[in-house]
Design goal:
- This protein has 3 domains: 286 residues, no CATH class; 46 residues; 45 residues, no CATH class.
- Helices cover 44% and strands 17% of the residues.
- A 4-stranded antiparallel β-sheet has the order 1-8-9-10. The protein has a 3-stranded antiparallel β-sheet with strand order 3-2-14. A 3-stranded antiparallel β-sheet has the order 7-6-11.
- Strand 2 and strand 3 form a beta hairpin.
- The protein starts with a helix and ends with a helix.
Length: 407
Amino acid sequence: MNIITRALSAIGLERRSVSGGDPYWSNFASLRNGPVNDKTAQGVSAVYACVQAIAETTASLPLILFKRNGDDRERASDHPLYKVLHDQANPEQTALEFREYMQAAVLLRGNAFARIVRGWDGQVRELWPLSPDRVSVLRVGDKLAYDYTDTKGIVHRLLAHEVLHLRHRLGDDGVLGISPIAAARRVVELAIAEGEHGVNTFTNGAKMLGVLKFPGKLKPEQRTAIATSWSSQHAGGANSGRTAILEEGVDFQALSMTLEDAEWIAARQFSVEEVARLFRVPPTVIGDLRNGNYSNSVEMARQFVTQTLRRHLVAWEQGIAAKCLTDTGRRMYFAEHQVEGLLRGDSANRAAFYSSGISDGWMLKSEARKLENLPAIKGLDDEKEAGHSVPTPAPLPYPSKQQEATA
């Protein structure tokens, strides 16, 4: 903290963490006048697919509030925060809708904000997402505060404990996060330019038509009239292939640079890989199956959970612990995502996994049924607890054979 900051803090004045305007883009002044922002970036299918893959998966995973019970744990379904995280974030949004919006804001803007509404007992009852465009982060002394401007233009001051703030990788100010789009804007900008090139090329008949050569010099008004006439008759996909009628010594020299000559298609495919690398999403997850097969697709789906989602899931869990629980509450409760459903693979692999766990003694049959969302069977684990197992004979294929076996 420098001498100016200490002086301002001593007399109670505030110091904004960003220098006015949009609190997100102000750290990247070069982006303000450029074509890349959170809205234009989503026009790139690879960006939209990466954001949706992470946001949808994160939001759809069960987020459970647990209560510590010695070395064990149990669901804290009677705690008010359990419903907010698992079922209904606020009266207008489900937990999935709220979490999906917040996660997308983290990826596209680097920051996501939610207003915390507590009940009479201090427990969280509602979480309301705030648009990052309308939030400005300030430093008041040694603490953070958030100014939120509503749709009527009224500014509301929220203290740090009243806002759930999720961030992507922190910037140099230690307050605001930096999104992948802001960190590598050229990658997205190139993908946008390639898309615009394709649109313009196909609009003009998927190729550059050529050059008109005149024997003499044209006046400016003649140039304009000829260009307008030629464009109306031959530009656009609907006019592709039409025969041109030339007169008075005019010569047409065709140019045959096609999309293949410019390797446009290869560049578009490489942009998908670049964007996927930017968000750390395996290409097969967003539909790029050029190098995908059954074996590596299953492995990359596992890596999507362990290497891509894990950081975001931990950010949610630690953010909830820091802002939605008190010091006393953190010693008793914690939030955790249930990712077993994404990691357990196909039915054959799951059966082998459960069989190994049950035979080795570190899993009960009832636990395996619970992971498969099957109803409990009374006394299923009794034989294990008694120290012996009773083999269950396999049924014979025909009723007549069963009768012969029991006769």
